[in-house]
Structures are given as C-alpha cells and as structure tokens.
Amino acid sequence: MFPADSPAAQAIAARRQEQHERIVQTLEAAVEAHELRALDAPSAARFLIASWAGVHSMEAQSGTPAEAAATLAAGVRSLIEGLATPNTVTDDRRLRPAYEAALQRHGLGPGLDSAP
User: Fold this and answer.
1) pLDDT reading at 116 higher than 80
2) Do the Cβ atoms of 89 and 81 come closer than 8 Å?
3) What is the mean pLDDT of the chain?
4) Do the Cβ atoms of 54 and 48 come closer than 8 Å?
5) Of 26, 45, 64, 105, which residue is most buried, by most CB within 10 angstroms?
6) What angle do CA 63, 61, 43 make, to 5 degrees?
7) In whole angstroms, what is the distance from residue 7 CA to residue 66 CA?
8) How far is 13 from 94, CA to CA, in rounded Å?
C-alpha cells in the first residue's frame, strides 16, 4: 500500500470519482428514459462500485475469469430486472429484446450466471 496523500492515491481517487459520476449519469438517464424506476442514483452508484469490487476480490481466488463473469452477470441481471419499468421488461418480467441484446454485447448474455 501507499500513503493516502501520494500522487498515486490521488490519481486513484480521481478515477474512482469519475467512475462514480459516469454511473450516476447513466442511472439518471435510465430513470429519465423510464427504463428504471426512480432511485437514489449516487447511493446506487456507490453500491454498484463496491459490489463489483467485492465480486472481483472474492472471485480472484477462484482463478477462473468465467466465475467472476458469471457472478457479475447474475448481479447485473438481478439489478436490472429488479429496477426495471414496463418499458424494460415484458409482463412476465423478462428483459425486452433490445436490453437482452445489450447485455449480450457486453458479455452478460444468458447462461453466464449458470456457468460451471
């Protein structure tokens, strides 16, 4: 580790803040587009960053990138489906094709959350 007041620590903090701001903006845009229910975007963004970091820490010991990807895929899908509005999911709570395709483009397609 290095001291919190070092240039490296300051650069990491700046990148973390930029990441947080991008996620907040994305969440707010999704709420505005009626894709997600109203939420506290700054708090949700902090939760997402912390949970992703936790998944990476936990899965780093497994030694297989597929396990980390499957864990993230399950979490992302759960969050999206849980916060979704009728614009995003069908009556039976499945993602509409456009959103399913977006997840697949980012490697979060079906089956990842059940990978061996």
Assistant:
1) no
2) yes
3) 84
4) no
5) 45
6) 115
7) 34
8) 37
Return the bridge partners of 84, or none. Answer: 36
Say how far apart CA 55 and CA 61 lie, in whole Å: 10
Residue 84 main-chain phi, psi, to 5 deg: -65, 150
Per-residue pLDDT tens digits for 9-37: 899 889 999 999 999 999 999 999 999 99
- The one-letter amino acid at 116: P
Q: How far apart are CA 23 and CA 101, in angstroms?
A: 20
8 A C-beta contact, residue 48 and residue 23: yes
**Cα–Cα distance, 65 to 56 (Å, whole number):** 10
For 48-75, write each residue's pLDDT tens digit.
999 888 888 887 776 677 777 788 888 8
Q: Please list, in sequence order, all residues whose beta carbon lies within 8 angstroms of the beta carbon of residue 33, skipping any fewer than 6 positions away.
A: 87
Structure tokens at 94: 């499945």
- Predicted pLDDT of residue 111: 46
Question: Tell me, what's the pLDDT at 41?
Answer: 96
Domain edges within the chain: 7-114
